[in-house]
Amino acid sequence: MSLAENTRIQHDQWWADAVIYQIYPRSFADADANGMGDLQGVRSRLPYLSQLGVDAIWLSPFYLSPQADAGYDVADYRAVDPLFGGMKDFDAMLAEAHSMGIRVIVDLVPNHTSDQHEWFQDALTATPGSAARERYIFRDGKGPGGALPPNNWQSIFGGNAWTRVQDGQWYLHLFDTSQPDLNWENPEVHSEMESVLRFWLDRGVDGFRIDVAHGMIKADGLPDWHAKTSMVEGSDAETPPYFDQEGVHEIYQHWNKVLSEYDGDRMLVAEAWVEPAERLFRYVRPDEMQQAFNFGFLLAGWDAVRMAESINESLEEAGKVGAPATWVLSNHDTVRHSTRYGLTDPTTFPKGISAEDEQPDEELGLARGRAAALTMLALPGSAYIYQGDELGLPEHTTLDASVRQDPAFFRTNGEEIGRDGCRVPIPWTGAAPGYGFAENPEAASPWLPQPDSFAKYAADQQVGLDSSTYELYRQALSIRAERKLGQGTVAWTSLHAPADGVLSYRNGDLTLVVNAGTRPVRLPAGAEVLLASQPDAVTDNALQPNRAVWLV
Ligand code: NOJ
Questions:
Q1: How many whole angstroms from 332 Cα to the centroid of ligand 1?
Q2: Which of left, alpha, beta for 221 (phi over 0: left; psi -120 to 50: alpha)?
Q3: Ligand 1: distance of its center to the CA of 72 in Å?
Q4: Which residues are near ligand 1 (CB < 6 Å)?
Q5: Weakest mean pLDDT among 346-350, 358-362, 511-515, 544-548
Q6: Could you tell me the pTM of the whole model?
Q7: Nearest protein Cα to ligand 1, atom 2
Q8: Around 141, how many Cα atoms within 13 Å sit in the side-chain half-sphere?
Q9: Is 547 helix (H, G, I), strand (E, B) or coil?
């Protein structure tokens, strides 16, 4: 098997091969001891991230918000929510990150605002057809007295995608009722979002992660849709009338021009759950965004054939448009990968796990998670690490319903467990209250309870310990940078075949072998193991199942 070489990428652009660390500010580090992470907390842990060797951080939203969807419901795009600090804290964090050579990407949520946003509050008091209503998607209802919603769309979080207001009109919200969709047919929405982009670019951010990047434009006439709404569509699914419409690309072509007016390489990364890869990579054509998350790799699970297919497809499609491939295993919307890989079927993709569900095999999941990290980090392109991945953190799978906060849990009456389990605050110190999420021992409890197992995963239990997951990531990032693996190419070796559960590719002088099968596999005689996913990975020159190595 050979792969199209991604020859058109210009490697002087920092993002082309960057390792980008996702910070979920609520759960990263709590400097003011109120139980919720904050920007000063982020700043205080920058030395940890620098030591880990990341090139950039991406911060999930920290803007003024009622927090109905953990900040993805923005009330003011130009203000820091007091929960996280103030603008001074942001500026200080940004300056310090830059002084350490770490770039900073912020989240932009352009598909919807919070219902507490000034625009929406104005729209509520304005009359049907008014300019204030035209910023959102208001429609008259159907049936007698307009009592039925304008169409049959369902919210991604469950329930109806329309809510009725006092005068009888309805407004669209693809997510929660408190997240009204903006009307991207209205030029005022375009100019406002451009101004928001410029506000943060002027402050010095290096890029934006674009939330629901495939969602802003809806099909003409808002036609009914026959299938269930989901962020994760199968590759054979039809395109719903609210996702991946042609018009979204014009928005990114414009934003590309806006970014190019600024010095430095500013970038946009698309959160677009779009399949197949050929359609996803249209978002990163040369005049659009710079990167798009490759969720195909995340969805491949612990399955060598599917991983190989996803790697081939991504590199081929990326090569066609001259964009870097991206790789990601977990984020704040998915069950953590070391937990997914510990389920009986490690290709399943549950929407949350509760105490009543199958519980993962933690040791197996962690072993596979570490092997998957080596598989991902030797690939060319840009790699994303979700906070806690480097500690091998598992999902919290037994959170009580009483502490859950994800709107998806409530809107589906608990049918969908939701994403709280992957958002649990980071353990920094094994023996401290709240595992050191706040350094102050008097601090309020973390906003979500941590499982007891977090004591052993805490950063202080791992930093400097040779066999730890943290040290594995640190060494992998260091070798990746030294050997410029992110700028390399993939050539499958003839050593083993994915059908036997084994992936093996070369990138430069380095060979990755990962054993996702059930039997030990022989390694080439004389090969030196540069890095192993764990100390027992190789016995008698055979790679054990659920392990990976980097060979030279
Ligand atoms: C995707 C974000 O990652 C998720 O957390 C959020 O709930 C939805 N978009 C809505 O903004």
A1: 9
A2: left
A3: 6
A4: 69, 72, 109, 175, 211-212, 271, 332-333
A5: 346-350
A6: 0.97
A7: 211
A8: 18
A9: strand
